[in-house]
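Cross-posted from the bioinformatics board.
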Amino acid sequence: MRISSLTLSHAVFPIETREKIAISREQAVGFLSNLRFKMEIENALLVSTCNRTELFLATEKQERGREILEQTLRQWMRERQFVIPGEVEELILEHQDSVTRLLRVSSGLESQLLGESEILGQVRSAIELSEEAQVAGTVIRKLWEKALRCGKRVRSETSIGDGALSLAYGALKVAKKIHGKVSGLHYCIIGAGEVAELVLTHLQGIEDARITVLNRSQEHAEKIASVYGAAQGSLDDLPEVIVNTDVLISSTASPHPIIDADLIRKSLVGRPKGLLLVDLGVPRDIDSRVKELPQVFLYNLDDLARLIEENLDSRQEAIPGAEEIVEHERQQFQNWTVNQQLDPIIRALRKSIEDASEQELELLRDEVDGELHTILTDLVRSLLKRALHRPLKEFRAAGSQLNGSFLNRLESLFQQESVDEEDQR
Amino acid sequence: MLEIITNGVGITLTVLYGVLFSGEFRSIGVARTSPISPWTWLVVVVHLAALIFRGIQIGACPVGSHWETLSLLALLIVTMHLLLASVSGDRCTLIFGLGLTFVLQLAGASFSLGDQVQAQSPIGSISSLHAFTAWIGVAGVTTAGVHGILWLLLKRSIKTGQFGLLFTRLSSLESLSRLIRMATGIAAGSLAITVGTSIFLGSGVEASTGPVTPISLALMGLFVILALVPRSTGTVTEWRAWCSVVGLASVVFISAWVIQFGPHSR
């Protein structure tokens, strides 16, 4: 099986394009199901976050994967009305690069904020979409497992995740520039998803912080608010809550802005201090015209990333170590895929030799007594085991260097031999 | 001999302020909340001692020459910045105060003290108070203006997401807003005393040179309003910052006028 991938990320596309590309959970399951039923794909993984939409496929032939990804990209460009800066082919990666890509993504090496931890959770939950769409095949699942393992190793064995470097950290840094402190402020969190939860985690250590969680589904808001000791409400409460809010952080999956300039303008009447609005949603939750209002400071993902980039020095130093781990895990996945291909060949080879020896022993059954036959049977089996052990070990070790078509030929040869022998019998 | 000593002290002070400024510049982003070095206070005390000595020597507030006027203004500005930094615990703007002080000292040193010593004549204590508070007012308006400019620049930097030196160096809009309010309060108070003493002297308008007095009166009126209006909304702070900048522009004009024609207390 060969892995192919399509990469649409912050490195190439600004937030205005990324919000057109972003795929909701429901859309993702529908899209992956289509791949299964229309393209007969059984191994697919879609990682769609605010900063990236990456599709990984495992197909028998590399060309097939590339062809499907090209079609997909062209279809998205038509439907979602965006253009890419270069050629379609430039965004599609082949086997080795695709494997490395997913490992790097989960390690945070391809993140807008180097080493950020949110991406690992997003990769972890990506398999649920594949399972729901029934495209979580053995190969893609194995790659996903490797990606998670790699991400964990990189964070535990290197300093890439060290230091306060996250979107919430960036938001708090700006809040401090406006209000002079982060304690005693009123924070309003809109949304109750994973990002909102991460933001709440960051706010936990702040003294006298008043936190209100607002969400479309009040049930979710209640759940998350109870965990973090925050007040909660529905989105209908927003006009009332925003009046006393100092920092508003929004991260919903809404396809349209939920906060418009009018709402903010009304909340500014009599406000003694500035209002910081942090939009972590893709598509964006806050109308960008809000930025024009006095006393309002609007930050989106790209703005915060630029701010935090200045703190990247210590993390940059961890890149070589992280890349070594990625390479090690990539090699392991490569070995696994080769073994996947070698196992049937080895089984066929072992079976053909064992069958031949069993036949010869069967011929001796009438010529020697039972006890001697048992001894001979054990001897032959032991000899075979010892004789095959080293060659097969070497064969496995050299497997990654063997040509795919040669392995296919070898597999069919031994399987054919087994069939011929059975026919002769 | 005395002129040589005074000039020597003036030049030494200029060099010391230069050293303090460069030290503050080198600690950008590190020492924003650390206490002010005793060496800084020592330089200010030496400066104050030099001006007191000069005042005793001429028997009046030392504002009779360009050198003295600029040096007094420099002392008042640096003292005001140090006081604001000490009271607020935020020394992010001290570098600008020290920079301005250094420039004023340098400008003062470019005038010859010796030529003007002969022109000095003793003035009364009320006139000295009038002159002294007038220059405190000027220093207050300048300090408020500097903080106003910094507030506006920091606001622009946060609003547009430009994370340059000012964003890194300056503490926060809230802190700068407090400092502007304090500086405007000091300026308003001292300018009120200035106007009061001129009424007492009965020579406020008559003895003035050109537009200095009307501008000073207008500034006093403006700064009294700025000092009295509470920090109720962000818009008020923005207005206060802009008015402080206008005040600073007026001070620059008054300073240029005084340098050209001399202070009216002369």
